[in-house]
Amino acid sequence: MSPKSLFRLVAIAEAVTWTLLIAGLAIRAVEPELRVAVTVGGGIHGFVFLAYAATAVVTALNQRWSLGTAVLAVGSAVIPYATIPVDVWLHRSGRLEGAWRVEAGDDPRDARAVDRLLRWFLARPLAFLGLALALVTAVFAALLLAGPPGGQ
């Protein structure tokens, strides 16, 4: 799976989970006893939100986006459905073109520690996926223990 297709998949998933969260909030507004709708929708959205942020960071490193572009990509997940237009813009501007950088090239940035580490993990996709899922799950669990936004 290319950086473009992975980013697009997770960007769309993040937007879809906004719908789940908003639907859960609407259900709770109509029927306050159905708080579980927000719990389920919010939980799914929270996990996918974190997965999107991780995907955006890895894609930003691989594609060598500027800090501003990376912040825009990650930050777009905070605004409902904003990951879709950001994905379209990244695609149209060519920022998602190219393959995963699993081998060093002539670019002097390939000697940086972060680039070497990224290449090491990209060359081992199952290990990378396992680590990424473990990290996202750990952050998700820590946030669940901290409680929902706004308390309660």
Q: Key terms for this structure?
A:
152 residues, mainly alpha, elongated
Structural commentary:
By secondary structure, this protein is mainly alpha-helical. The protein has one domain. The chain is 70% helix and 0% strand. It has six helices and no strands. The longest helix is centred in the N-terminal third of the chain and has 28 residues, at 3-30. The model has no long low-confidence stretch (mean pLDDT 94).
Provide a concise account of the structure shown.
The chain is mostly helical. It contains six helices and no strands.
Report the sheet-strand fraction. Answer: under 5%
Cα radius of gyration in angstroms? 17 Å
Question: What's the N-to-C terminus distance?
Answer: 40 Å
Number of domains: 1
Q: What is the overall pLDDT average?
A: 94
Unreliable stretches (pLDDT < 50, length at least 5) are: none
- Total strands: the figure is 0
Give the ordered list of helices and strands: HHHHHH
Helix content: over 70%
Sketch the major β-sheet.
none
Oligomer: single chain
Structural class call reads mainly alpha
List the topology elements.
Elements: H1 3-30, H2 36-63, H3 67-75, H4 83-92, H5 113-122, H6 125-146
Helix pairs in contact: 1-2, 1-4, 2-3, 2-6
